[in-house]
Amino acid sequence: MCGIVGYIGFREAYPILIKGLRRLEYRGYDSAGIALIDNNEELSVYKAKGRVSDLEESVKDKDINGTIGIAHTRWATHGEPSNANAHPHYSQSETIALIHNGIIENHAVLKTQLEEKGYKFQSSTDTEVLVQFIEYIKSLNNCDLFSAVQIALKQVVGAYAIAIIEKGNPDQIIAARKSSPLVIGIGEGEFFLGSDASPIIEYTNRVIYLNDEEIALIKRNEEPKIFTISNVEITHEIKELEMNLSELERGGFPHYMLKEIFEQPETLKNCMSGRINVEGTHITLSGIIDFKEKFINARRIIIIACGTSWHAGLIGEYLFEEFCRVPVEVEYASEFRYRNPVIYKDDVVIAISQSGETADSLAAIESARKAGAFVYGVCNVIGSSIPRNTDSGSYTHCGHEIGVASTKAFTAQVTVLTMMALAIAKEKGTVNNERYLSIIKELQNIPAKIKTILSHNDKIKELSLIFTYAQNFIYLGRGYSYPIALEGALKLKEISYIHAEGYPSAEMKHGPIALIDNEMPVVAIATNNTIYEKVVSNVQEIKARKGRIIAIINEGDEGIKELADHYIEVPSTLECLDPLLSCIPLQLLAYHIAVNKNRDVDMPRNLAKSVTVE
Ligand code: G6P
Q1: Ligand 1 pocket mutation pick from 402, 609, 612, 613 by most atoms within 8 angstroms of CB
Q2: pTM for the structure as a whole
Q3: What residues in the chain have per-residue pLDDT under 50?
Q4: Is 3-246 assigned to CATH 3.20.20.30?
Q5: Where are the beta strands (DSSP E) in 12-60?
Q6: pLDDT digits over 17-29, tens only?
Q7: What is the pLDDT of residue 268?
Q8: Which of 48, 64, 73, 135 lies at a C-alpha separation of 20 to 30 Å from 5?
């Protein structure tokens, strides 16, 4: 989703801003733009529909000097992707340029008021309304830009992260946020802005995270000053980033997605490290220790998430119910936030999010907290909004995930949920010691078993060629494999644009089986578990209707090999850990089919990595 970069310092701003935009490309966008103040204090804006390279092409013969600037990648919300709708937007007098991530909900009312006063608009965006409104407030109150921004933001309804520069004022950037992320990088004599730390990390690891309704005055050669929109000055802690630059590079892989799939043996080791003791006899999650009573006495667990994280949540439901014997509900954050749900004070709400910035998840957390529930975050991005707005939590520690289709973050989320379920079950006494120890032991074998699956990559690539023609796909699973069927289908949809549906296998006969013919590929997760025989019967039902079966099976399972048209073997493991293995071939299958179709795997159309608008 929209990306923001800013720079003020002693270097040329343009190359830093362009590089920053490239680092933010992974978030998903459809146009890009830049505003610079040159050495004559003139303000210029350049923008282009398409990729950052199109923007570079469009400024080829322009004067792009200057040591201050702001830049943006846009993911369309109001108005189609076009040059006119791309950011930055000028104010009417072209003296102010503004970039924005978020949605100004009362833009229509403000626009009508401004039009009545003679303001003309060049775009159909809510963002242009905001910059015009700021200019209007500035002239109405005869005040400086900073005060105008403060006054304007008080009247704005919606979400924003913004950065603003002004002609004739080459020494300041003004930045503000509400519900959309914004980070300030603190260098030596230079400052950076980013929607996240990825455009900043190359220059400094010292950052300030702005909080909601805070506005920063970033002046050349002065420490940034931060105020609330009601003008109360705030002292902010400078945080040290843990990310490193190599995490942001592709490391020899053709796509970030493939790199991230292959990183999983390592990322899961990192996720478990320090949490499972060296003897392999105990799990300690620091986020749970201080609040163990909350978990032990929980009336219910409610899991809220979106997208792939929601699928991890479904696996969490199976884990918590099996081991902790507590009722669990898994909710789409976007539904939960608007549905007036019943929330008890002794409910524990677990919010799962890779980015930690998903707008719907943040809003759902707010509702849960207002109702007095204890909220626990399971997030990947350190210092992001969800960890800062929850009572406690665990990081997934899988490193920066760039591919829009989530892979390593998903397996790390499932690993954290498994460790949580076991740690809580141990405290509650709902798991016996033998079982507890055997699961911890097997959890530690998972990285090596994933390596074995990754060694079948060439076979999966070959298989993908057979199915690249397909218009539709069905994925089936039962028990712990059902969420994996949903996740497998989502992976394929996201990056290959093939229509795919995930179903609990036994539901087929209530409708979807009507879709089966000799052209329909059906991916059946048929690993050996307590309902294996029933899964085999479901596969037989598909076979009888001539569906083309790709079965995910355990090594050496000869029976199912005969039924299936194709099969991919995975090592066997405990039933509750099976999702961590059976998802891997599905990630690879989706990846190869998308590559065969020449899709933009890391940046699929219309999708965003970090969904910061509702
Ligand atoms: C977007 C991403 C998905 C992700 C979902 C939830 O749709 O493309 O990969 O699963 O948002 O994001 P979160 O950061 O909250 O896990």
Answers
A1: 609
A2: 0.84
A3: none
A4: no
A5: 31-37, 43-49
A6: 999 999 998 888 8
A7: 96
A8: 135
